[in-house]
Automatic annotation (TrEMBL):
Record-annotated Histidine kinase domain positions: 250-480
Any coiled-coil regions, as ranges: 216-250
Organism of origin: Domibacillus aminovorans
Gene Ontology MF term list: ATP binding; phosphorelay response regulator activity; phosphorelay sensor kinase activity; protein kinase activator activity
EC numbers, comma separated: 2.7.13.3
SMART domains assigned: HATPase_c (SM00387), HisKA (SM00388)
Catalytically driven reaction(s): ATP + protein L-histidine = ADP + protein N-phospho-L-histidine
UniProt superkingdom: Bacteria
Protein's recorded name: histidine kinase
UniProt entry keywords in alphabetical sequence: ATP-binding, Coiled coil, Kinase, Membrane, Nucleotide-binding, Phosphoprotein, Transferase, Transmembrane, Transmembrane helix, Two-component regulatory system
Gene3D superfamilies for the chain: 1.10.287.130, Histidine kinase-like ATPase, C-terminal domain
Amino acid sequence: MKWKLTRRFLGSVVTIVVIVGIVNTILLFCLLILQSMYNIFGTEEGSAENFSRIFSQYVELQNEKPIVNEEGLEKLQDMNAWIQFLNNEGEQVAAFYTPKNLQTEYSPVEIVQTYKYKEVDANTTVFVGKAHNFSYFLGIKDQRIGRYVMTYDYAKVFKYINILLLVFLIVDIFIAIVIGFLFGKRLTTPLNTLIEGIQQLRERRFKKMSVPKGVYEDVFRNMNELSVKLDQHEKERNHLDQMREEWISNVSHDMKTPLASIHGYAELMKDSVTDLTLQELHDYTSIINRNSMYMKDLLDDLNLTMRLRNQQLPLQFEDVNIVGFIREMTIELLNDSPFGDRQVEFETNMDKAVHKVDKKLLKRAIFNFIYNALVHNDENVVVNIRIDNVYPQCEQEQKSSNISTAPEFHTQITIADNGRGIPSKDLEQVFERYYRGTNTTSTHGTGLGMAIAREIILAHNGKLDLTSVENKGTTITILL
């Protein structure tokens, strides 16, 4: 492909050069003919020749001898010229401004020699004219003016012109091939790179190309942008495929246990329906119902976890006063019958802290942390919920630089308990799916609460920290 493009470009260059050469040659011959006929360029020689031919208008006869009138004498002085009149025998009959060493008698051969060649001196060109039956030499002393006499054979001239044109044509074609090859290679190499880049895109290989300077710079830059976008779309597609496969795998894995329980008790009820007591039927249906509800909660939690983790869940942000929001959550918790007599404390050092949050999701995350502290500890555990202002690290720098700007702060939510704590070997697994710890017998929930809570905090661009000491308690810190 590369050489094909080069050959095409080279052929175009050679064709253009040949056509241009032929046209230029024709134009050159036409100009030479016009110049010889009409002196279209108005050269100095043509002006001098014309001056010598029309000078007869300044010549008059006096006593049968030619003289130059005053206007003609002024013209001679302006042209730095002289004039010599001759009779039919070649003898001088009158002269004006002629040099001292100029001969006064000429044979026919000498007349021809004087006209054709610079016989007077190297700076003077002699022209011939006629006035009142007298011939005259008109010499113009000017180094810029010259005459060149040529003799030629038409047949040979055309022969040599043909040979010269052929040589020029061959040389032009050779030069065109060399230049066309060099420029063609330079111009077609980026095209070949572009073609290879398009083939890579077709094969789903998204590789950036180096951007050359020149006419192709924008093309290469757009190709690289296209490659980046296609690469992003490909990664997104692969990511969605992976999400789907992970979702199917998680659902398949997590549904096996409750489905097995439901299937087992359903089979037992079918096979022993006449032998079961009302209490046994009630117990079995309760187990089936509990497992079906667990499956529903598990599906909801799995779906929420996957969407949060992959940033596929749109959050409904609104301005919320965090202090009042968590105070209401604490009251709601204490009004719940299972936790009405539990020790839950709420503290704050401020009245208002407004943040843009998704109330539903943030409420679920904080409730998950509080429920874990209550459910996985003894009934006498004390849970403390505290809200504080925390200034950023750059506050001291602002104070030292005397900048009069309002200091920014973060809202810190701390949920601490004095319960069993978490063993150090389990700390890294707290936010993993289905973690329940080794020092608790509770099986409440789906095992996804902490993982969901962490993803919710991260979705709010918050920070989450957990510290725990065994037999002393656990502290969860949320920074918004």
